[in-house]
From TrEMBL, chains A, B:
Domain HTH marR-type per the UniProt entry, residue ranges: 19-153
Protein name in the entry: DNA-binding transcriptional regulator, MarR family
Keywords recorded for this protein, A-Z: DNA-binding, Transcription, Transcription regulation
Pfam families registered for this protein in UniProt: MarR_2
Source species of the chain: Roseibium suaedae
Entry-linked SUPFAM superfamilies: Winged helix' DNA-binding domain (SSF46785)
GO terms, biological process: response to stress
GO terms for MF: DNA binding; DNA-binding transcription factor activity
SMART domains: HTH_MARR
Residue runs in coiled coils: none
Length: 170, 170
DNA sequence: CTTAATTATTTTAAGTTTAAAGTAATTTGA
DNA sequence: TCAAATTACTTTAAACTTAAAATAATTAAG
């Protein structure tokens, strides 16, 4: 049994629940920032965050992507991609077409309008992030990137034991 | 106009788009971990992640919380708290009651069953996180916590200019 | 005192999310 | 060949999310 001193020392700092505290901080921080980015994307460009994410993935692939690949890259389930792409097609930002050689496959590709709209969005989106992190030491950003990557890697290896997580490398 | 060398030096490392890269890494990492925690909470305890979050907040307040406070602390909108609390009441994990002195106010409070169930969940939840971060250097965890907090603080101050973000201190 | 403003919560509509079941096309293997 | 398995996508149901409108209770102001 631990005495008062050990309990206090363990909880106040260091060993105690740092993993939990860090996780809660990561979660609340990304939630906070996501909410604001979502708000701005809606107000300025009338798109949702997942829609922006889909557009971003398609923008790097001028020939388009299969819905399955899109699903992996955005970490959005297959079932969800269907509706997302449907709405974006309705808005004229992308087109869908069936592959002739394998008619199970649907490829989504940005329209010219979608491409130019996304480029406007991406520019604003990046500048919001730059502004947000304006006062952060560049070395801190680099170190954060590398340490967060370490956690991501741990999640991929430890959690992958159960599932089959292949993609999601970004 | 920048020459090739400057362009290359700028993009490959350091200045370029580190803010964007860090943000995408933070987002994909929290999404990945959330997905697995959600999966395990569902399988082992039959609760969702937002429900777990509500229970966690109520667990620290034996006298219960107003729905508005619950909304702030969980960063869940008012409208959403209604349904969440409704389902948790149906499952017998909490009770709602109207305040006599101000009948606009509803207070939610854990039942005895809710309290003991949450404690089981919290124990498992914490051990999953410890396991996930097993190989991380404790100093890295501490440094991550402090740097992520810096970003959170920046978001609260920069974004608060527009909105009125008071709570969300955790 | 009584209407107007404010506060707390609920409702609504559109969209996203997960998990699971369903459909269609293609590939495999007996 | 042709039934069974696999693959790609869609559909479904329940829950969550946001933003905005609606309801109800209290407080404030004239």
């Amino acid at each position: 049994m631990l005495n008062d001193l050990e309990l206090a020392a363990g909880d106040v700092q260091g060993g105690g629940k740092m993993e939990l505290r860090l996780w809660l901080r990561l979660l609340s921080t990304t939630k906070l920032i996501s909410q604001e980015l979502r708000r701005r994307l809606r107000i300025e460009f009338n798109v949702t965050l997942p829609q922006f994410d889909v557009l971003a993935q398609l923008h790097r692939e001028p020939d388009g992507l299969r819905l399955g690949d899109l699903s992996q890259r955005t970490m959005v389930t297959n079932g969800n991609i269907t509706g997302l792409v449907e709405r974006l097609e309705t808005d004229g930002l992308l087109v869908r077409e069936r592959l002739r050689e394998d008619r199970r496959v649907t490829v989504a590709r940005l329209t010219e309008h979608g491409r130019s709209e996304f480029e406007r969005m991406a520019h604003a989106h990046e500048s919001w992030l730059k502004e947000l992190m304006r006062d952060m030491d560049p070395e801190v950003l680099t170190s954060l990137f590398s340490h967060v990557s370490e956690i991501k890697h741990a999640a991929l290896t430890r959690f992958a034991a159960t599932d089959e997580l292949d993609g999601a490398l970004d």
